[in-house]
Automatic annotation (TrEMBL):
One Pfam family cited in the UniProt record for this chain: Acetyltransf_3
Record-annotated N-acetyltransferase domain positions: 15-173
Keywords: Transferase
Gene3D superfamilies the record matches: 3.40.630.30
Protein name: N-acetyltransferase GCN5
PROSITE patterns: GNAT
Organism, scientific name: Actinoplanes friuliensis DSM 7358
Record GO terms (molecular function): acyltransferase activity, transferring groups other than amino-acyl groups
Length: 182
C-alpha cells in the first residue's frame, strides 16, 4: 500500500485501487447503460450523466463504513471498474463487498480476481475486518468463480429476490473470514 498525501493507493499484482474522481462520471454512466455489464447487477432507476457527476462530486470521503475504489490496470493506468467495501460494523468486523468491471474488453484477464483479493486484503489488514460478505445472483457463474478462487464460500440462498428477463432469480450469500483469503 502506498500512501501519498491525502490519497491512498492500494496495489495488487495487476490492478491499483484508487479513489474515484468526478471526471470518472462519463465512464461510470456508460457502464451503467451497458446491458451486458448490468445483466446481474441491481440497476435501480435511470440516472442522468449530470446526476452521476453530482454523486461523485458530493460523495463523502472514503471512511471505515464506506470505501469506494476505482480499479485501474497498473500497467497502463486505465480505469476499468469499481469495487466497494461498505456497511462495516466495528462490533462484528463485518463488511460487504461489491465489484463490477465496466470495460468488457478487460474481462477474463484476472483483473477482478486481483481486485477482489486486494480489496479483501485491505479490509483485513488496514480496516481490521474479521469477515467480508457479498451477495451474487445464482446465474452469475463468472463472478462466483472469482469469489471462490479467493476463498469465499457459499453460506446461504435468498430465494427469488432478483428480477431479470421476466423471471425471478435466487441470490447466494457468500462469506470470507480473515485467514481464509487465498
Ligand atoms: C464477473 C466479473 C467481475 C469477472 O471479472 P473478470 O476480470 O472477467 O474475472 P477474472 O478474469 O479475474 O476471472 C474470471 C474467471 O471466471 C471464469 N469464468 C468466466 N466466465 C465463466 C462462466 N460463465 N462460468 C464459470 N466461470 C467463468 C474465467 O475462466 C476465470 O477463471 P480462471 O481465472 O480460473 O480461468 C466481470 O465480468 C464483471 O464485472 N461483470 C459484470 C458485473 C458483475 O457481474 N459483477 C459481479 C456482481 S456480484
Amino acid at each position: 500500500m502506498i500512501t501519498g498525501g491525502l490519497f491512498v493507493f492500494v496495489l495488487g499484482d495487476l490492478v491499483t485501487l484508487r479513489a474515484m474522481e468526478p471526471s470518472d462520471a462519463d465512464a461510470l454512466w456508460r457502464w451503467n447503460h451497458d446491458p451486458e455489464v448490468m445483466r446481474w447487477m441491481d440497476d435501480g432507476y435511470a440516472q442522468s450523466l449530470a446526476q452521476v457527476r453530482q454523486f461523485l462530486q458530493e460523495r463523502e470521503r472514503n471512511e471505515y463504513t464506506d470505501v469506494l475504489f476505482g480499479i485501474e490496470t497498473t500497467a497502463d493506468a486505465r480505469l476499468i471498474g469499481l469495487i466497494r467495501l461498505h456497511g462495516a460494523e466495528p462490533e462484528t468486523g463485518n463488511a460487504e463487498l461489491d465489484i463490477y468491471l465496466g470495460e468488457k474488453d478487460s474481462w477474463g484477464r484476472g483483473y477482478a480476481t486481483d481486485a477482489v483479493r486486494t480489496a479483501c486484503r485491505y479490509g483485513f489488514d488496514k480496516m481490521r475486518l474479521h469477515k467480508v460478505t457479498l451477495t451474487v445472483v445464482a446465474g452469475n457463474d463468472a463472478a462466483q468463480h472469482v469469489y471462490k478462487k479467493v476463498g469465499f464460500v457459499e453460506e446461504g440462498r435468498l430465494r427469488e429476490v432478483f428480477r431479470r428477463d421476466g423471471r425471478w432469480h435466487d441470490k447466494l450469500t457468500m462469506g470470507l473470514l480473515e485467514g481464509e483469503l487465498t
